């Protein structure tokens, strides 16, 4: 076969890139678990009719068919629309289905994290993939879900992403808004098509305030004053309680106060307060966030990497009053989703984070000649038994070549087994396993410094920092 | 939406089942890393023409199409056969492609592990799924690959699976055979259609020796004596060097010795010897293994769970002389693949392994009333900072109800924050974060024993065994 080329939109990493991705995933997972989120995984497919319930995403779905069905000729059962399967495009739809399917066997409120690939048939571009990894946390209640979870979940994400800063991940800023504030304000102004207004306001970054004002008037029938008020609301942002006061004052100046607005401001204020206490400077109220407000019902979150804002949100979510419903019961939820592939892709392409090496191996055990390979195997076995990853040289090449083998992979240590102690060389094969720690003269070389010292496979320890390949920040000059 | 039903062939676990699966995956991954295998992940899709290169699996492939293309009407580019994508049905085909694609950036021999879902459009049945997790290890060389890897890789798998025994996974038996032994023997007998003979011998378990003897004569044109010899070879098995002697003696009795047979016996003997030394009793030569021999070129492996042999092989693989080739270079490889879903499904359905709980939470921090929630949050924060997973009660319900909340999830400890020390109760909100360790009277209750003791969130430690949810063997009576 000819040398294959990458498929656009389907990212893959070399082993050292995968070390960085694994580190990101481990830190996220660890933080989620510390907060009591249970890990689940759902199947990759859902019935197509379930995936298409949100109309807007319908075009992005990959539909599956069994190749065999083509051969069968006749219209097979799983070509019927209701029986067709598609790949999930997020982890929310499958989670909602999982909750309904297992409602009787889950304890609510149910907190879960889920780290899996999702697929979207979108045109690939920078930061947008057709296959990518998401890491989601959600909490879902049966019938009701206290507001305080809307405060806690973005803080969990801020903590998880913040825990990545020491390997070079930039600072994050979590931007928050609240559907009730926007809706209450627009209704107070007399604008009833809330979705329509949100759709226009969402174009602010693209077309600017003048065009949005024109659109609000032309498309939504707003008066110039109403349009002006909408733009003034969108301009408000900040990380302390004055945000709430400014919105309240703005609403008063337009006589646009409503109960819904007040409820929304109470919620937004509580979130900003708690965030300012628990993660100062990380969470910022940003009243211009409109995307998401049309399907979320309370808080909504977006997250940018400081210095990489043009990448878009790397972690978004919000509150649903109805994450799932089976007609009898309703399950409200709140959650956020990290775009892991988007994040890792940027970390690697921007040269922010690198791996100390691409292999787990700490020690390469050299092989003097094939007859003594069992001795080298025994050293590796002794090291592994104490949690030290070890590999044995593939061939009994010259030691210089074996050291090069380690160097090329970033393996920090090369181990040279000594001659068997009190036994003849020709008997080493049979006894090597039993006498790894009886041998005299084992030496280990740190190939970075060149230092070579006597060592015993039963007791030698590498520096803790060398024990595993690590993700590390790339030094900036 | 109506309550959804599971999709046959697409297994999912409840949170406690996922704890068991995670344990299995972690043990496998840890063992692979200790042996120096680098973790990689490949995309879930491959070009359809690449997936169909092995004819026999073609019917099992799930082909993708973008729903949007249906709407577009015209025959879109990605309906062209060479541009169609299918979900991978194993991890070997994608790994071979990854090796070719990145050959210039990988160091050979390249040892990698890969743990991912694969998909097959097969009819679901016990132990056979349409979506399942595989955990593969392979080592691939550039141009050449020393034989000793054929000895090492099944031993790595035996070690990985053996490390699961203390949580109740049954003993495994790795059955090995060698293509060169079978081919050398058949050719020595004068049977040249080696694939044909293997196909008949593979039916032994299903139809019995008499029928196989008849098939060998009817379909392969074997004489009665040749058929008898094939069956006698298939009967040979054992875990020591006498296996090699028995095959050699059998070949001599039919005057069927060949150089290829001798090479194969040397290899098989070396594998059995090393295995008997390094993992006594685990590896068994079984000359009747035929499946796999038609595409592997050297050693071949299957693995059964002792007591669950009818489940079939849970870990199979072998040696390929050409794992991949780009015309200029050839990459021989050897590897094995664990059917993780098949294994976990049996562990759960047979009640062999269970989880101590389904949530990571060690401590539920109770909430006396909503006004003091920040105090409870502060306790949880202090515990988490020391690696102790903590959750805070969802509401300030009666303590009995909060204890029930913990009990239902298997959370072992409930924490009762005391009153703030030297500050008034009404000031607790503002200061709780700063003074988690100043408060007097925190208590923690082990809800299994009922023991309740004074505790300080800055120093208290749970028993090590409670720190994480664990997979444990189900006690047998």
TrEMBL record, chains A, B:
<dbReference type="InterPro" id="IPR015807">
    <property type="entry name" value="His-tRNA-ligase"/>
</dbReference>
<dbReference type="InterPro" id="IPR006195">
    <property type="entry name" value="aa-tRNA-synth_II"/>
</dbReference>
<dbReference type="Pfam" id="PF03129">
    <property type="entry name" value="HGTP_anticodon"/>
</dbReference>
<dbReference type="InterPro" id="IPR041715">
    <property type="entry name" value="HisRS-like_core"/>
</dbReference>
<comment type="subunit">
    <text>Homodimer.</text>
</comment>
<dbReference type="InterPro" id="IPR004516">
    <property type="entry name" value="HisRS/HisZ"/>
</dbReference>
<keyword id="KW-0067">ATP-binding</keyword>
<keyword id="KW-0436">Ligase</keyword>
<dbReference type="InterPro" id="IPR045864">
    <property type="entry name" value="aa-tRNA-synth_II/BPL/LPL"/>
</dbReference>
<keyword id="KW-0547">Nucleotide-binding</keyword>
<feature type="compositionally biased region" description="Basic and acidic residues">
    <location>
        <begin position="423"/>
        <end position="451"/>
    </location>
</feature>
<protein>
    <recommendedName>
        <fullName>Histidine--tRNA ligase</fullName>
        <ecNumber>6.1.1.21</ecNumber>
    </recommendedName>
</protein>
<keyword id="KW-0648">Protein biosynthesis</keyword>
<feature type="domain" description="Aminoacyl-transfer RNA synthetases class-II family profile">
    <location>
        <begin position="15"/>
        <end position="360"/>
    </location>
</feature>
<comment type="similarity">
    <text>Belongs to the class-II aminoacyl-tRNA synthetase family.</text>
</comment>
<keyword id="KW-0963">Cytoplasm</keyword>
<dbReference type="InterPro" id="IPR004154">
    <property type="entry name" value="Anticodon-bd"/>
</dbReference>
<keyword id="KW-0030">Aminoacyl-tRNA synthetase</keyword>
<dbReference type="InterPro" id="IPR036621">
    <property type="entry name" value="Anticodon-bd_dom_sf"/>
</dbReference>
<feature type="region of interest" description="Disordered">
    <location>
        <begin position="416"/>
        <end position="477"/>
    </location>
</feature>
<dbReference type="GO" id="GO:0016874">
    <property type="term" value="F:ligase activity"/>
</dbReference>
<dbReference type="Pfam" id="PF13393">
    <property type="entry name" value="tRNA-synt_His"/>
</dbReference>
